[in-house]
Amino acid sequence: MMSTRHFASPVTRGSFFYGSDFYVEAPGSGGFSRERFTRESSGSLYSLLTYTPPSGPVLTKAGKVAKRQPSPYRDRTGAFYCAQLIHYGLKEYKTKEAAKKHLLQAFDADHELKVPENILLVEKELKEEYDKANLVAGRLYEERRLLERERVRKEQEERSRKNAALMKQLKEISETKVAGTDDSGAMVERLSDKALRDAIKVMPEGDLRKIVAKVVKDVPELRDAVELQISRSQKTTQKANKGKSAVKSINNLRDREFRGRFDVAIPFMSEQWSQFLPDELFTLKICKSMKSSHLWGKFDFGGISGILRSTSSPLPESFPAGFKVEFLWRGEESGEGESSFGKDNKGYIVFLGDGRIKGHMHWMGEFDFAGKYDTEQSQNVVWVKSIPHWKSEWRSYNQHNYDVANTARWGNWGGETRNEKAADSDTSAGKGSSGSDDEEDFDMEDDWDSGYQGRSNIAF
């Protein structure tokens, strides 16, 4: 038996249409749209046309006004009555009263109104025409549905294959031990003289200044040597700058590794929650702020999602493989969406190089994660433009908004939500610093266009 679902467009002849039913169209309310009206049965139409409102309220057997009274009578629209004139082959009128008057006059002595044979024939022929068209359209729909199902199946197989390969990589990443570093990213191996010189060349200037200041203070005998080197440096500034710009280290991480999306594996999630499969992949998006004051990120780890922000500020100019970035995070749990924030929400990411990361995070205890840079999803995105949105979300996770949401869960109104101010959300660069670009307002016209011409996507 053919399904009653309708796939074909209605067929039409004159004023009549056939789709899911036989109907005519008439102008709707205000005349700006058209409404469909099927044929009302003769008996029902006669009742509508001869309706007489009750003379008073409904009474009980005791003669008292009943508590339950019938709903107020609402007559059908003028468009309805005008459409019935067409259905019964009568002369068309444009007003409601005229249509009702001529419909009632058309009834015979037995209160019957017959449908003309020619209209019944039109209905029969339109139904046959529509049924044929619907049969063809239904077959086409089924073919497309099967093709789409096959396409989705192949995509799922390909995705599963890629995910399996990626999960294998992520497992290897999670077990990676970085040569020359411990889990914190600190160098533990003794370096050769040449390796030490190369490492010094690419060290951040701020770190070098700290080392020199400490050496001069702790070893006064080296003060003369330092002052002599300062004098030489001042005389050869241009040469030194050229030399500095030429210095590169194959061990340094590529800048793109701090600006993009990572696919992340978290065994903890599937172990704790049945809705997450063992091969479930999660996402982490990160980007350094405009002046590298902080590393910001947006994560979706299944059971928890939100924003992370590095605690070290400012970030060094270059990062060796194995560099560790500690962060605080704020977010909300899946399900009821209860927010989480505070000094205990912490973690770290270790950048292993070649687009690989591993990390650790405090939530529901602690868990580890491993990630791989997603090149395809990271292209053609101006990641720095996402930071204002991430910062806004960060500031929305606060005690006031938590209390508002908590009150709302009990069906009460807890007030308007509000975000923290910049100072409240700890966006300054810290004591002794000259400030942070995280405090500044971003100018999309002036700041973002520079260096990012032709790229407009934003990742939220």
Automatic annotation (TrEMBL):
Residues 436-449 have a biased composition (Acidic residues). It comes from the Eukaryota. Residues 425-435 have a biased composition (Low complexity). Residues 411-460 are annotated as: Disordered. It comes from Lentinula lateritia. This is Uncharacterized protein.
